[in-house]
Amino acid sequence: MQSLGSNLVDKLSTISNEIIELVYNEGNYHQWKNEKTKYVCEMIRPVSFGHWCGYVRVPSTHAYYGKDFDDVPVTVHGGLTYGKKDECGKRAWWFGFDCAHGGDLVPIFGRMFGGETYRTKQDVIEETNSLAEQLWEIRYNAK
């Protein structure tokens, strides 16, 4: 199990034991290739807040490579919140979303801001796969 950071551990006391156990057991990072698209997908949990973020890497040949994430016509939890060039030297672009929106339970805040729904690792895997498949569908057709 990866370290969650002492600040997050202290804040976990404001949420249920079930959520605490999920946060501990899910880890902080997961990477896979979407079966249909072969796009690399990643999930990262910023230890400062404890919520999941999901990302999909598209190649430089993608119609939305280099485009602002606000211009990409996809539907994903909370909308796209990230679009950036791959920092590992690959000719690729990342698009992503986060699970720290109204109604989301962000572990560090507990229920302080009305967050009721914790987005689990499985929820974010499914949403990230959906994003990968939507990006695949528009790979040739930028608007």
Describe this structure in words.
The protein is an alpha+beta fold. The protein has a single domain (about 5-135), classed as Yope Regulator, Chain: A (2-Layer Sandwich). The protein has helices spanning about 5-10, 15-25, 120-135, and strands at about 30-35, 40-45, 55-60, 80-85, 90-100. The protein has a 5-stranded antiparallel β-sheet with strand order 1-2-3-5-4, covered by helices on one side. The protein is elongated, with a radius of gyration of 16 Å. The relative contact order is 0.23. The mean pLDDT is about 85.
Major sheet details: 5 strands, antiparallel
> Which CATH class is shown?
Alpha Beta
| pLDDT < 50 stretches | none
Overall mean pLDDT stands at 87
Architecture per CATH nomenclature, i.e. the level-2 architecture:
2-Layer Sandwich
Instruction: State the strand order across the main sheet.
Output: 1-2-3-5-4
The total beta strand count reads 5
SSE arrangement:
Layout lengths: L5 H6 L5 H10 L2 E5 L6 E5 L8 E7 L22 E4 L6 E7 L22 H17 L6
Give a brief description.
This protein has 143 residues and is α+β, with helices and mostly antiparallel strands. It is 23% helix and 20% strand.
What labels would you give this structure?
5-stranded antiparallel sheet; Yope Regulator, Chain: A; 143 residues; alpha+beta
